[in-house]
Amino acid sequence: MREEDLEAFGEITATSYFEVDARTYQRAWPDPVRRPPGRNAHWMRRTGRALATDPGGCWVAEVDGEVVGGAVSRVRELMWILASFAVRPDQQGRGIGTQLMAAAMHHGRGCLRGMFAASADPGAVRRYRLAGFDLHPQMLLTGVVDRSAIPVVERVREGTAADVELMNSVDRRTRGAAHLDDHDLLLDQFRLVVTDHTTGSGYAYVDDDGVPVLVAATNRRTASGLMWEALASSTPGAQVEVRHITAANAWALDVGLAARLAIYTNGYLCVRQMKPPAPYVHHGSLL
Ligand SMILES: CC(C)(COP(=O)(O)OP(=O)(O)OC[C@H]1O[C@@H](n2cnc3c(N)ncnc32)[C@H](O)[C@@H]1OP(=O)(O)O)[C@@H](O)C(=O)NCCC(=O)NCCS
């Protein structure tokens, strides 16, 4: 993949993911929307950075000189992480995805562990299992936060770039590999809240809607406090959607249920040579 392929591949991921969502979303959910332009800019920045840090993990496939698919992966401290994987819908089912996946996995050949979040696309899930990954169903919590259920949260403060070392150490304890530079991308996009105390430490990145998009902590109590801090910042009366919760993280379900959110399932956390991290809620592409 080259810098000049970014835009074309970005369009392909937006189209392919939207097409999967349209095929697999549940009736009780709002209709899926294609990735909005605001989020496209973040996708471009993240992927552009991956191209700089992990050129060997980023690949596109061309048919007649035109980009028709790609795969973006990173290696962080002996963990291989797949961030984006898509083939244009009219070119799917011809073996292109298999070749892209093989090229991206070659980048992680020195890594024992691997981790990524997968859509519910049966073709993708087939690829991942055949590539040796364990599939852990992901749950999501959705609804309007019951403000009267929000507890007083102690020992949570706003975080800054000065917390990166602390976060990397919590990453190693929970997911077995630090995010390193990826924290810069996350810090640019999200609000950071941190707990750093003798009784537990952890952090959460929170989006503008009050959704915790990444939570890691040394114990469940700390993780729950961070998740409550995020939910408390949601706009009263507005829908929130907390995604990427595995069965290993029942604490997050308990917070969601106390906030009167509903549980659904969607997609999988795919891992290799490791258990699903806990207490942990993974980010969709940086994990
Ligand atoms: C996942 C994806 C990248 C694979 O690319 P592709 O070029 O279609 O992949 P291939 O043709 O190499 O292989 C697809 C495999 O899925 C199988 N498949 C396709 N549709 C399927 C279905 N509905 N049910 C079961 N298997 C299916 C194919 O038979 C093939 O398996 P095989 O090689 O063992 O026969 C592509 O389908 C895609 O872009 N999907 C939508 C986006 C997405 O979900 N990406 C993954 C995000 S985590």
UniProtKB/TrEMBL annotation:
Q: Where is the N-acetyltransferase domain?
A: 1-151
Keywords in alphabetical order: Transferase
Pfam families, sorted: Acetyltransf_1
Keyword Transferase applies: yes
Give the residues annotated as coiled coil: none
Which molecular function terms from Gene Ontology are attached? acyltransferase activity, transferring groups other than amino-acyl groups
Please verify whether the record's keywords include Transferase: yes
Q: Which InterPro entries match?
A: Acyl_CoA_acyltransferase, GNAT_dom
The protein depicted here goes by the name GNAT family N-acetyltransferase
Q: Which organism is it from?
A: Nocardioides ganghwensis
